[in-house]
């Protein structure tokens, strides 16, 4: 089994980006010694519970990319494990919708893109009920769902990212130890723990934090329809459930995740929640997704029909061109090679018409006779026209002699 505690420590020392509040307290609350004795065979907890068609998936404690077993009861939830539970609920015929029951201070940034994509791709609607807190990465998860309801004692927010760097040069100095690192470039072996960070190293770490935080801010802004500058202006602050509702971070406040058609809500009372509205919203989401599937199928059918028509037209044009090529071969008495036939078929109508003219031999034609010159004159001057001309010449001479 992976030593989870050692892995988390290694990641923190390697400047893993965290979207988390009170990380030290979360780590202190996890009994890692007990987890080290906790094997896969000890996992008996279901991925979720189902009531009235609603699958409730618990999200508890520190959020990490994945765990080798289900450690949620121990205060650790893996993103990859959570994605598996959502997929199981999607495959469960008894489940019509899914609720993430969140009580977490957040955790790793790494792995969030995968679980948020799973939530987005879910065929069954997913919403969030915050039974405890939803801070940082935990709120990132909540914001990915269609609706967020929180208990009135919940804490919400802490939207931001950080990374830690442990520098122990002073402790080494006090112990009489001095480490000198030789490296091939300024980024080789950078960010080490035994020398103070350079200005460039600090800038690079901060740039990474700012980039990840900007993604978080813009994501929440898009999901919750809040101005991104407003979110950035909160500077990672957290809020009570009532304040979070006022700010638009959650949709409603309730005391329970249970879905019941008999539960009523007054929109003016933040301590009550109309779960009928949840059912309506879930039905609307399901209908929209069904319409999307129908539209996508209609588009696919239209594209398929267009392709069939296109192929039929191409086949018809090919057959017509082949007939024209065969006629040209007959008319000219020529035999065309495969390359010539291929070239003919690739031509448009105008190009092929020109090729037909060039390939067809021209029959010889006698020149037309000038005006006043009859056929006998042109073909046999001595027998016809020439004798008359000579006689005329002779008469002219005789007349001149007189």
UniProtKB/TrEMBL annotation:
<dbReference type="GO" id="GO:0006508">
    <property type="term" value="P:proteolysis"/>
</dbReference>
<dbReference type="Pfam" id="PF01343">
    <property type="entry name" value="Peptidase_S49"/>
</dbReference>
<protein>
    <submittedName>
        <fullName>Protein C, Serine peptidase, MEROPS family S49</fullName>
        <ecNumber>3.4.21.69</ecNumber>
    </submittedName>
</protein>
<feature type="domain" description="Peptidase S49">
    <location>
        <begin position="121"/>
        <end position="265"/>
    </location>
</feature>
<comment type="similarity">
    <text>Belongs to the peptidase S49 family.</text>
</comment>
<dbReference type="GO" id="GO:0004252">
    <property type="term" value="F:serine-type endopeptidase activity"/>
</dbReference>
<feature type="region of interest" description="Disordered">
    <location>
        <begin position="365"/>
        <end position="385"/>
    </location>
</feature>
<dbReference type="InterPro" id="IPR002142">
    <property type="entry name" value="Peptidase_S49"/>
</dbReference>
<keyword id="KW-0378">Hydrolase</keyword>
<dbReference type="InterPro" id="IPR029045">
    <property type="entry name" value="ClpP/crotonase-like_dom_sf"/>
</dbReference>
<dbReference type="InterPro" id="IPR033855">
    <property type="entry name" value="Protein_C"/>
</dbReference>
<keyword id="KW-0645">Protease</keyword>
<keyword id="KW-0720">Serine protease</keyword>
